[in-house]
Amino acid sequence: MIVTIDGVAASGKSSVSSGVARALRIPYLSSGLLYRAATWAALQHGLSLTDAQPLLSLLDAWEAAGQGLKLRPLPTGNQVWQGEHDLTALLHTAEVDARVSTVAALPELRDWVNAQLRALTPPFLAEGRDMGSTVFPQADHKFFLYASPRVRAGRRVLERDQSIESVEAALKLRDEQDARQSAPAPDAVRIDTGSGTLPEIIGQVLAYLPGR
Ligand code: DC
Fold first, then answer.
1. Which residues of 102-115 are buried (b: 16+ CB within 10 A; e: fewer)?
2. What is the number of the ligand 1 atom nearest to the C-alpha of 104?
3. Which ligand 1 atom lies nearest to the CA of residue 35?
4. How remote is the C-alpha of 2 from its chain's centroid?
5. Per residue in 18-33, pLDDT tens?
6. Which domain holds residue 189?
7. What is the pLDDT of residue 212?
8. One domain, residues 50 and 88
9. CATH label of the domain that carries residue 185
10. DSSP reduced 3-state for 25
11. Are residues 164 and 185 in the same domain?
């Protein structure tokens, strides 16, 4: 079984995905974390963010040396490791937030992320922007989460040391950039995460799944 949960930035995708996956006893995959890790790699090594080739060469060289970026889909939260190093804590900085859409716009990089995800064996729940439309169009169940920019900024400001106005402005900009490179699947069930508690929203998703 494959379940996809796509949604806009800070729509609650990770928390909802992790709760649903736990209830279904399947792993969840955070595709955004792989885009973040690639962005971190480019920033760390001073590589172009608008030319995929140097970045892909770096990722290939790491892979060949047994140091490739690897997604670890733990039930408690996804991690990305490079060899023996857990990079996860470095991937949610304001700098990565601001650059990740640019890197995610590179088609070759999207192919790299998609290949990593498609190499994994179902069952799983895949979370991101284009999981139901592009990466796993054959998924059994597809969802799309949304909420107003103000609601999402209110959530994210709890995780970032920034004002709600600047977080909201950054989210709107990222929405525009992300929308150009990823669209939700037309057959996804749309769920507003702006009202209702996390357990209620997880319950709404589970209600669509057979036997739940
Ligand atoms: O879900 P997130 O906010 O951690 O994702 C980080 C960025 O990665 C997001 O701004 C857009 C990009 N992304 C994407 O383009 N396609 C995906 N499937 C997942 C994320």
1. ebbbbeebbebbbe
2. 15
3. 8
4. 16
5. 999 999 999 999 999 9
6. 1-26+123-212
7. 64
8. yes
9. 3.40.50.300
10. coil
11. yes
In the beta sheet, which residues pair with residue 90? Answer: none
**88 shares its domain with 7:** no
Determine the residue of 90, 129, 156 to mutate for testing ligand 1's pocket, defined as the one with the most ligand atoms within 8 A of the Cβ atom. 129
Q: Whose CA is nearest to atom 14 of ligand 1?
A: 129
Position 137 pLDDT exceeds 70: yes
Residue 151 or residue 77, greater confidence: 151
How many domains are there within the chain? 2
CA nearest 30: which of 62, 74, 78?
Answer: 78
Question: What's the gap in Å between 76 CA and the centre of ligand 1?
Answer: 19
Q: What is the pTM of this model?
A: 0.90
pLDDT tens figures, 140-161: 999 999 999 999 999 888 877 7
The answer to whether residues 118 and 128 belong to one domain is no
Shared domain for 148 and 201, answered yes or no, is yes
Q: Do 128 and 95 fall into the same domain?
A: no
Q: Of 122, 142, 163, which one is at a domain's C-terminal end?
A: 122
- Residues in the ligand 1 pocket, defined by CB under 6 Å: 9, 13, 31-32, 35-36, 100-101, 104, 128-131, 174, 178, 181-182
Asked whether residue 90 falls in the same domain as residue 149, the answer is no
Residue type, 51: D
Q: Are residues 70 and 155 in the same domain?
A: no
Contacts of 145 by beta carbon, 8 Å cutoff, 6+ apart: 5, 6, 7, 8, 11, 12, 13, 16, 190, 191, 193, 201
